Amino acid sequence: MLWRYEISGIDTITLYWGERIDTALARRVHCAAQALQTHLGERLLDVVPSYASIMLRYDLLQDDLASLLESVRHILSDLPENPLDHASELVELPVFYHPRVGPDLERIARHAGLSVDDVIALHAEQTYHVFAIGFAPGFAYLGEVSSRIAMPRLATPRPHVPAGSLGIADRQTAIYPLDSPGGWNLIGRTPVNMFDVNREPSSLLRVGQRVRFRPVEQDEYLALGGQLSTRQDQ
Amino acid sequence: MSTDGKGLRIIKPGFLTLLQDAGRSGVMHQGLACGGPMDRHAWAWANRLVGNPWNTTTLEISFGGLECVADVPLQICVTGARLPLALNGRPQPLWSTLQLNPGDCLTLGHPTSGVRSYLSVQGGFVLESGPGGSHATLVREGTGGLKGDGRPLQAGDCLPCRKTADQGAQRQIPDQWLPDYDAELVLDVILGAQVDRFPATSLDCFFRGLYRLTPQSDRMGARLSGPALAHNANQLISEGISLGAVQIPPDGQPIILLQDRQTIGGYPKLGAVTPRSLDALAQRMPGRDIRFRSIALYEAQLQETRFLGFFQSSAPFKGNPHTG
Q: Alpha-carbon distance A54 to A16, whole Å?
């Protein structure tokens, strides 16, 4: 696996594998992040994988860059070129896809020249890869969404998006873990708690996992603890 | 060990008062920010003077205005911004230990120099740990702090303090070690990240230019205004963001990413300001002028390990860790 590194700060380097959003590449990055965490976890203060890179923060009082890089090179030289897909954990999340909790469903359908049911079917038939976590605690960037229902972010973000809302931005999809502002196109909501600071780990999703969405009817959504409140500003 | 939940009671919180320890480690991959004191120098001295180990939680008071009452005997210390400090109305020194008896009222006025004050209590506060085992308060996330919900301290909050056996003699740091928060500020930058995407003219502009700290700055980032910087990178694929990263958004105006920054982002970065320079930056009011200079990684690391080594060692007052 070809990689390079850059200095990102006084105690931080970033390893790069490429510059594109690509599931196969992301899988390689994830495999490397796991190996680094396993072998160097004790030495590293933070390991932050993303689409095509991993940021490493080390302890200046215990470590130096040269010996850290030596260890990193050694660990990464042993990794397979193309890690297998089924090696990563599959998480299934129930979603109530409905205009009542997905105020942008109908707009996406019009934009795509499809029915709302087609949009839901295209979104739910895909298995997604967790590319990155960021923006907010537990906010997982999933890809890739079918190009037929890809949709740019809203020009003006909503000041309030309820927790659990499922959205699309270009060819990525994500669930808002907490009530927050947001500019993604909302298509449904999950009753699952994506982030709980009193849980270990707090974030339900991790980079490298695979995710599938299971469409549920309103009754099941409510039985699972889902809310219909529409505090979001339209 | 604890004092039946008693300790320090907040009467007026001031503009923004937060609990801060050294910050979180090992949780960025969950999207959780690091937090921690904006000025580690004043924060570390506040702990050192009352005999607390590194990483003990203190109050971080921005722009003064705090009023609090001791419900138990406490040894405390206030460092950082120059402001009027009073105990039951009588003026008291900063950067010096103070003895509070039950019922004593401590007030911080407004800064005449600097921005942030640190109030330490000998033995520290008795608090539930948040993410990464830290007590850092992350307001934007709604995590950490007194109740774990990220809220700043407010009137009526009571901070339980650990009972300490011996409060010890008065300690203070000599005047010549006190930092000057009005001095001209030149920030050290370690070049890196996407620096190769910036044309030489752009870097020249960055290191020769005069920038101003804008009022839009907060614990997430220091937003600057000055000569706009061009680069050859469009939006990048999001990657981890390090402390001090100098990020250039499409308008070309640099943002220095600070303790409460988001964990990943996609704007090009030309390098990172050193933590020691960030300490100094944290004490500058908006409107202050800022310049940059380039520093070698190894020089910056030496500076940082000396600083950490001094404050994380157990023997107090071994030498001056280069104040300022």
A: 7
List, as one string, the DSSP characters of B240-309.
E--TTEEE--TT---EEE-TT--SEE-S-EEEEE-HHHHHHHTTPPTT-EEEEEE--HHHHHHHHHHHHH
The per-residue pLDDT of chain B, averaged, comes to: 93
State yes or no: cis peptide before A217, omega within 30 of 0. no
* Among the listed residues B46, B239, B269, B24, the one whose alpha carbon sits nearest the alpha carbon of residue B150: B24
Q: Give the dihedral of Cα atoms A192, A195, A198, A199; nearest 10 deg.
A: 70
Contacts of residue B130 in chain A, CB cutoff 8 Å?
197
Domain range list for chain B: 2-168, 185-312
Can you read off the two tokens belonging to residue A52? 């095509």
Averaged pLDDT, B114-125: 97
For domain A4-85, the CATH class is alpha beta
pLDDT at B2: 54
Selected for mutation to probe chain A from B24, B28, B30 (highest A CB count within 10 Å) is B30
Beta-carbon separation of A197 and B148 below 8 A:
yes
CB A55 within 8 A of CB A133: no
Q: A88-223, which class in CATH?
A: mainly beta
- How many angstroms separate the CA atoms of A19 and B239, rounded? 10
B86 dihedral zone (left: phi>0; alpha: psi -120 to 50; beta): beta
Residue B36 Cα to chain centre, angstroms: 6
Query: Residue B136 and residue B155: Cα distance in Å, rounded?
Result: 19
Distance CA A129, CA A82 (A): 15
Nearest chain B Cα distance for residue A219, angstroms: 31
Q: Residue A76 — φ and ψ, nearest 5°?
A: -75, -20
Tokens of B11: 């009467």
For the domain covering B185-312, report its CATH number. 2.40.100.10
Residues B10 and B46: their CA atoms lie apart, in Å, by: 19
Residue type, B155: A
**Structure tokens, B38:** 């904006």
Q: What is the ipTM score, two decimals?
A: 0.94
Continuous segment of H or E residues that includes residue B275: helix B275-281
What phi and psi, each to the nearest 5 degrees, are found at residue A97? -85, 110
Rounded CA gap, B75 and B54, in Å?
A: 17
Contacts of B305 in chain A (CB under 8 A): 60-61
pTM for the predicted model, two decimal places: 0.93
> Could you tell me the residue ranges of all domains in chain A?
4-85, 88-223
